[in-house]
Design brief:
- The chain is an alpha/beta fold.
- 41% of the residues lie in helices and 18% in strands.
- The protein has 4 domains: 20-198 and 380-391, Glycogen Phosphorylase B (Rossmann fold, 3-Layer(aba) Sandwich); 205-365, Glycogen Phosphorylase B (Rossmann fold); 414-543, Nucleotidyltransferase, domain 5 (2-Layer Sandwich), CATH 3.30.420.40; 545-715, ATPase, nucleotide binding domain (Nucleotidyltransferase, domain 5, 2-Layer Sandwich).
- α13 links the parallel β11 and β12 (330-333).
- α10 packs parallel to α11.
- InterPro entries: ATPase_NBD, ROK, UDP-GlcNAc_Epase, UDP_GlcNAc_Epimerase_2_dom.
- The active site is at 532.
- Homodimer. Homotetramer. Homohexamer. The hexameric form exhibits both enzyme activities, whereas the dimeric form only catalyzes the phosphorylation of N-acyl-D-mannosamine.
């Protein structure tokens, strides 16, 4: 504790040195009404008590200077504060227009005052329209603002005004942890927020033991006992004036019926207050024997009155905030304080639309005693605030900085948003399935359609067109603009003409097929076609490990073995579009027969078809299944069974996979010695099973100059579709092929 006190003193010393050793912080406190003065007065006393640090200027405006509201500026004078300036800013009328005109009048008068005072900082309290004028003037005149009670939540227009002042203020003193969190959520700088508690609690928590009976007798009569009277304080709700006047009328009727001595305070200066006063006079409240109607009670005395009341009723923030410190029962009427944190002493009557509801609430609450609540303060707010003021460095930039959380930018009018919604139709023609997808510029598969790949050319082309038309129509609903169609297919492809020259045996009737013309004519979109291995490389270049890499090779390890080569950031097709047929690199002169008709190709060893072939041989010889494996009679033997057997310790299966991995590794070594890439990407369902074997072969067989190559497994979930989309997205945006 001593350490932190010394640290604090040192910081204050450093701040004073920065601000100039002889410079006192010139603080302007502006007070608008009796309610905000009760919160500001303790701070003003604290500032006045430390003249070596502060100079205090007091500006009084608003309802303080109106006789109908008690000329409450007099209590400021009685507290021995010098009032530097009195500003008459209230335009009478007590309606919405009068409130607006009052703000305007204050904005006209305040600049001259602030120019003369030249304060270092202005302290503004709360959520009144007068306070908004103060904060606006100070902010526009480059005067730092300290806002008291920001971050709280309540009803009416006050909520909006409070948050508006928060955005103008440079420093914030809040009363509760929730209010602090609200300020942070509003992007205010945490370093400029002080959780101090409510300044009025500094006086409240030390006030209860004073001579209260004489105060009660002065205001309510000689015959009144403690806990046997009511304090009523109700203000208009500016967002629903008509209803709030009706609710006040019902409240007075309920109080008359309840037949207890009641102190009624006049409402504040908000729009609708004049009508509320008329209701009081219409019901004869000022002359009723059970009622005492007053314009103002000094705060010290008001504390004693609510502390010993049988109940407080109305919609004043005082009821839900200060009165909780005494455990006095409170009936909160309507929506004016909706959202405020309250103690258990507060009973809410949100929809106070009948006299019976209010009367029933009085019967429930009157005379009870609740535990004291310290939600809004612990009695030490002022020392914290003074310490906070001393820490302000006037040499820091005046411009506010907001701490925005990481969120998705709302950039509907930004070029990036346009690029994000630009999309491609991607088509993947596999041996089994035909897939079409809408793919965004960022590689997100927005929508995907899958059908079995028909066996004949006519059926296949008809299905491609049907699926593309359906996807293009759906693109409008998902806010995607289709730039073109990209097609990934097995076999040798002429990408310049969009023609499949020769297909693999996996796709029948698929040679010398012009895909570009019929699809482009049907959809009125440009069409690109390429080999599935090349598409996988394009997918890696745009979305995967190959992004930004100048030279890399992609190897697909699936049903067959394929791949693509990127050299100096461009895909290599070769003179007859046969480059990167990596699955047909020969690694053994007398190896197994490949589907291409040759022997010893990588594909004959390491493809899914090759592994399935070897698994079937083992199964036919009853050498595949080991303990922990089982197969149904009708189940087709696949490469997955071979891999499972190897994992469970089948030595013959392990040997086959080792040979396959070695064959693939030797093929990669040949690639390294031919094109010298800096990266090799293994893609497809078998990639994870081969990656370590490939690295081992490179270490054993490759020249030392290429052993440093990186070998990684692709992290793309669907390289064929993403590659097909890349054909469109890359070339339509850069306008070259």
């Amino acid at each position: 504790e001593v350490y932190f006190k010394n640290l604090s003193k040192q910081k204050q010393k450093e701040v004073m040195e920065k601000n100039g050793n002889n410079h006192k912080l010139r603080v302007c406190v502006a007070t608008c009404n009796r309610a905000d003065y009760s919160k500001l007065a303790p701070i003003m006393f604290g500032i006045k008590a430390e003249p070596q640090f502060f100079e205090l200027d007091v500006v009084v405006l608003g309802s303080h200077l109106i006789d109908d509201y008690g000329n409450t500026y007099r209590m400021i004078e009685q507290d021995d504060f010098d009032i530097h300036t009195r500003l008459h800013t209230i335009v009478r009328g007590e309606d919405e227009a009068a409130m607006v005109e009052s703000v305007g009048l204050a904005l006209v008068k305040l600049p001259d005052v602030l120019n003369r005072l030249k304060p270092d900082i202005m302290i503004v309290h709360g959520d009144r329209f007068d306070a908004l004028a103060l904060a606006t003037s100070a902010a526009l005149m480059n005067i730092r603002i300290l806002h008291i009670e920001g971050g709280e939540v309540s009803g009416t227009i006050d909520d909006s005004i409070r948050h508006a002042i928060t955005k103008l203020a440079h420093y914030h003193v809040c009363c509760t942890r929730s209010a602090e969190q609200h300020l942070i959520a509003m992007c205010e700088d945490h370093d400029r927020i002080l959780l101090a508690g409510c300044p009025s609690y500094d006086k409240l928590l030390s006030a209860k033991n004073k001579d209260y009976m004489s105060i009660i007798r002065v205001w309510l009569g000689e015959d009144v006992k403690t806990r046997d009277y009511i304090v009523a304080l109700q203000h208009p709700v500016t967002t629903d004036i008509k209803h709030s006047i009706k609710m006040f009328e019902l409240t007075l009727d309920a109080l008359i019926s309840f037949n207890k001595r009641t102190l009624v305070l006049f409402p504040n200066v908000d729009a609708g207050s004049k009508e509320m006063v008329r209701v009081m006079r219409k019901k004869g409240i000022e002359h009723h024997p059970n009622f005492r109607a007053v314009k103002h009670v000094p705060f010290d005395q008001f504390i004693q009155l609510v502390a010993h009341a049988g109940c407080m009723i109305g919609n004043s923030s005082c009821g839900v905030r200060e009165v909780g410190a005494f455990g006095t029962p409170v009936i909160n009427l309507g929506t004016r304080q909706t959202g405020r944190e309250t103690g258990e002493n507060v009973l809410h009557v949100r929809d106070a639309d009948t006299q019976d509801k209010i009367l029933h609430a009085l019967q429930l609450q009157f005379g009870k005693q609740y535990p004291c609540s310290k939600i809004y303060g612990d009695g030490n707010a002022v020392p914290r605030i003074l310490k906070f003021l001393k820490s302000i460095d006037l040499k820091e930039p005046l411009q506010k900085k907001f701490c925005f959380p990481p969120v998705k930018d709302n950039i509907s009018q930004d070029i990036d948003h346009i690029l994000e919604t630009q999309s491609a139709l991607a088509v993947d023609l596999g041996g089994t399935n035909l897939r079409v997808a809408i793919v965004s510029m960022k590689g997100e598969i927005v929508k995907k359609y899958t059908q079995l790949n028909p066996k004949t050319y006519e059926d296949r082309l008809e299905l491609i067109l049907k699926m593309c038309v359906e996807a293009a129509s759906e693109a409008v609903n998902v806010n995607c603009r289709i730039l073109g169609v990209g097609i990934s297919t097995g076999g040798r492809v002429n990408p310049r003409e969009g023609i499949v020259l020769h297909s693999t045996k996996l796709i029948q009737e698929w040679s010398s097929v012009d895909l570009r013309t019929p699809i482009s004519d049907a959809l009125h979109l440009p069409v690109w076609v390429d080999n599935d291995g090349n598409c996988a490389a394009l997918a890696e270049r745009k979305f995967g490990h190959g992004k930004g890499v100048e030279n890399f090779v992609t190897l697909i390890t699936g049903t067959g073995i394929g791949g693509g080569i990127v050299h100096q950031h461009e895909l290599i097709h070769g003179s007859s579009f046969c480059a990167a047929e990596l699955g047909h690199i020969v690694v053994s002169l007398d190896g197994p027969e490949c589907l291409c008709g040759s022997q010893g190709c990588i594909e004959a060893y390491a493809s899914g078809i090759a592994l399935q072939r070897e698994a079937k041989k083992l199964h036919d010889d009853d050498l595949l299944l080991v303990e922990g494996m089982s197969m149904k009679k009708e189940e087709i033997v696949s490469a997955a069974h071979l891999i499972q057997a190897a994992k469970l310790g089948n030595t013959k299966a392990e040997s086959i996979l080792r040979t396959a991995g070695t064959a693939l590794g030797l093929g990669v070594v040949n690639i390294l010695h031919t094109v010298n890439p800096s990266l090799v990407i293994l893609s497809g369902v078998l990639a994870n099973h081969y990656v370590n074997a490939v690295k081992d072969v490179i270490n054993q067989q490759a020249l030392s100059s290429v052993k440093t190559v990186d070998v990684v497994v692709s992290n793309l979930a669907d390289p064929a579709l993403l590659g097909a989309a890349s054909l469109v997205l890359d070339y339509t945006t850069r306008r070259i092929y």
